[in-house]
């Protein structure tokens, strides 16, 4: 709680507190920082809040294996599960940032409470989210997570289809941590190997 208060004093969060942004926040006390929030660039500038999504950009130094050499790695960390009225904005962000890997660590419903609205179609189905079309190619259900291969296409640029991998970790308890760390480490290793194997990748969405 003290750390959260310190962050609130250090960094402003005015954009998330605007009237037009409040309906896009799952929790009123978890807001993106203004200095590193994701700004959606394709919105109608005449509509207040069209550039807002509850997400922050995080940059980390990743050791690439060479001694004394670290490369900056860019991540997007969304601080909430999708709401019904933010699904289109979520896919706008994924497309804008050219993200190819999505990591989801929450269940859709937990303890009878909605944690994240389903933002992807059923397997072998297609669904449009605004001007973006998502096709669920296949799903692979493993011990503690599901891997979904999705195809993302702009409806006005049908020749440009991007493969997006969603890693849905289902063993992370609400307000807790997994009992077995080995499963988490294996999951993270799988995610990192996927990201490293994509040459044109943007930041990972978490």
Automatic annotation (TrEMBL):
InterPro entries: Prot-tyrosine_phosphatase-like (IPR029021), PTP_cat (IPR000242). GO terms for molecular function: cell adhesion molecule binding; non-membrane spanning protein tyrosine phosphatase activity; receptor tyrosine kinase binding. Coiled coil: none annotated. Keywords: Receptor. Residues 1-206 form the Tyrosine-protein phosphatase domain. Signal peptide: none annotated. One of its GO terms (cellular component) is cytoplasm. One of its GO terms (biological process) is positive regulation of ERK1 and ERK2 cascade. Transmembrane segments: none annotated. This is Protein tyrosine phosphatase non-receptor type 6. It comes from Petromyzon marinus.
């Amino acid at each position: 709680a003290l750390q959260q208060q310190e962050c609130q004093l250090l960094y402003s969060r005015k954009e998330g507190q605007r009237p037009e942004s409040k309906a896009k926040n799952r929790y009123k006390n978890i807001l993106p920082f203004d200095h590193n929030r994701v700004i959606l660039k394709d919105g109608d500038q005449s509509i207040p809040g069209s550039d807002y999504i509850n997400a922050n950009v995080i940059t980390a130094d990743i050791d690439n294996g060479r001694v004394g050499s670290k490369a900056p790695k860019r991540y997007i960390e969304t601080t909430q599960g999708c709401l019904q009225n933010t699904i289109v904005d979520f896919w706008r962000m994924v497309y804008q940032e050219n993200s190819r890997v999505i990591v989801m660590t929450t269940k859709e419903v937990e303890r009878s409470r909605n944690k994240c609205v389903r933002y992807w179609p059923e397997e072998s189905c297609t669904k449009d989210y605004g001007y973006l079309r998502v096709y669920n190619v296949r799903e692979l259900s493993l011990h503690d997570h599901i891997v979904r291969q999705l195809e993302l296409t702009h409806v006005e640029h049908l020749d440009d289809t991007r493969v997006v991998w969603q890693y849905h970790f289902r063993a992370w308890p609400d307000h807790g941590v997994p009992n077995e760390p080995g499963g988490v480490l294996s999951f993270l290793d799988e995610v990192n190997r996927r990201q490293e194997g994509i040459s044109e990748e943007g930041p990972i969405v978490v």
